[in-house]
Amino acid sequence: MKKAFIIAFLLFAHHAFAQDLSYARKTLDKLTAPAFWGRGYTKNGMEKAADFIVAEMKSFGLQPMDGKSFKQPFLFSVNTFPGKMELQINGQKLVPGKDFIVGQASKGVVTKTNLTQQDSTHFIAQAERIVVSLQDKLTWSVAQKVNDFTEIMVKKSALAQPPQTIATNIENVFVPDFRASNICAMVKGTAKPDSILLITAHYDHLGGMGANTYFPGANDNGSGVSFLLSLAKYYASHPQRYTMAFICFAGEEAGILGSKYFTENPLVDLKKVRFLINVDMVGTGETGATVVNATQYPKEFALLNQINDSGHFLVKINPRGKAANSDHYFFTEKGVPAFFLYTQGGIAAYHDVYDQPKTLPFTVYEKLFKLFVGFNSALMN
């Protein structure tokens, strides 16, 4: 029976949803545009992204998960860098994001002083509480606290000589009650509305470092949000036997905070969630994909592979065990069966200014879309 269903699904798939990449590309370009400023903590970037996602879901005809509002607001603390971001080493002006980044928990500092070498990669200004480290690659993040020192990471290739002098004008603002929102929507099931299949992705990214540098976050996770919205658009036009639900989380980069808040304050009965698939960084796929929690749910993983093998969608789906590395984690801790899927291959940009839409290949986007629809259909049958 299952084999017959898969064959019927594959025949249907070739005709029913050969998805146009134009919507995904257009959505990705919007999410990574300067207007959204890295979907982060300055220039109102995260809220602008949230409003855009809500507008898209409304246009598809989705309903708020709680029947009232698409937004589930919550608060958390965050260290931000909204203004000055200036650095000179040895009298050489360096470019934020490309030549240097500031440690995410750093305090602001305005000074001009000498540096003392500690080892081959670390240099300090003791009185000013500054630590400079030389790095091969610059990778930024988000912090919920402020340290009593300033950490500056400089790309090795940006300097001709080891750091001897430093001049800085760096501004930080700690926000103890930053307001963010999860975006929660659904398409009610036609036969078993109390059974839920849930698709999730985080829409926040790192935001900006200073007034002129932002992190676009194309693969992480503009790709996942674009993919989720494409699925939401499809299911809004093709209601299923089960309720199809969608959540775009905020606060993932600050410590998977949005999904933690949702599981502690759920808008649906978590016991009614038949399965959850979280997508984070799905813009590549040349070498396949990996599924976190594959070893936790071997029957569902076998079914996913069966759909994949029958449709020749991805070259390989690698199994991985339990990991607290994205928004699926707190759901599984509450007993919700869940996968976290990410694709592999292609660009290596991650948490840097080079994670841009123009470099994202969307190699297996359409095939991944068909794989998801097929897997969801198999779960309902």
TrEMBL record:
Domain Peptidase M28: 182-370
InterPro entries: M28_fam, Peptidase_M28
Keywords assigned: Signal
Protein name: M28 family peptidase
Alphabetical list of Pfam families matching this protein: Peptidase_M28 (PF04389)
Span of the signal peptide: 1-18
Domain of life of the native organism: Bacteria
Listed PANTHER family: METALLOPEPTIDASE M28 FAMILY MEMBER, PEPTIDASE M28 DOMAIN-CONTAINING PROTEIN
Gene3D superfamilies: Zn peptidases
